[in-house]
Amino acid sequence: MRKRHAIGCDQEEGDKLKQTLRLIKRDRLLLFMLLPGILYFLVFKYAPMYGVVIAFQRYNLYKGIFHSEWVGLKYFIEFFQGPDAWRLIRNTLLLNVYQLLFAFPAPILLALAFNELRKAWFKKISQTISFLPHFISTVVIAGLVVNFLSPSTGLANKLLGLFEISPISFMMMPDYFRTIFISMGIWKSVGWGTIIYLAAMAGINPELYEAASIDGASKLKKVWYVTLPGIMPVIIILFILQLGDILSVGAESIILLYNPVTYETADVLSTYVYRRGLISGEFSFAAAVDLFNSVVGLILVFAANKISKKATETSIW
Hints:
It is a single chain. The chain has 15 helices and two strands. The chain is flat. It has two domains: 57 residues, no CATH class; 238 residues, Orthogonal Bundle (MetI-like fold). The protein has a two-stranded antiparallel ribbon. By secondary structure, the protein is mostly helical. Helix 6 packs across helix 9 and helix 9 crosses helix 11. The two termini are 39 Å apart.
């Protein structure tokens, strides 16, 4: 009996293997198209992961990873006992909370506005204008912002001068940095972010809108009871992915905007890693801080995904 059962299992596994091979043969062109993406992640994302071991070593550039002295959690302890840890974590969390409150809903609201436009030509022009900043380099965008806020030649201070207000050095005042950073991020990415939501809205059944019209629903109620529930799975998935980057604020934008005067509110974990690792050459210390950053992000993704799966039955996996 056991022998017959084992033969049956082997035959079933053989059938599954044949079916898998048939599917691979059938979809070989599609799988071949996936190859560049898979190679990209293997070479640039997974292969370098062995380098995190230097966070637990006193890394010496000449000795290499395999011969550097092992120090365990020394640099993690040093970071959390140092004077900068709380300030960096606070700034990082605050910037990400502001992004979740203001930058994350911005493309949703803009997509809802585009979806309500009935003039096709006006809709196309509006979308094109909103997309343009995405294709401009972050360096150029930051340069435009700095020039716009310049105390001597900036348009912002020129407008303030019309009301007899003295010029303000926006870029030299820590209290203004978070507002400037979030506003720049929204301006650059809000148009591009609407693409996914507009695609999700296009998949909503038009009969739902017709039924809502028959019931006498206003445009606002259609948005609230039809459009938003229709795109809610997309919103949840993007929100979970956003939580994964909650400690990884865009360092390139901050580096282009901040200066030592604004470190109090502008300095975050990513920029700290850049200065300590690449500029000061403290590779092990920077790797420890960055590893902490990544682990917290990974935990948040898993936690948010599990909560979302239980609460809304929508999740990434």
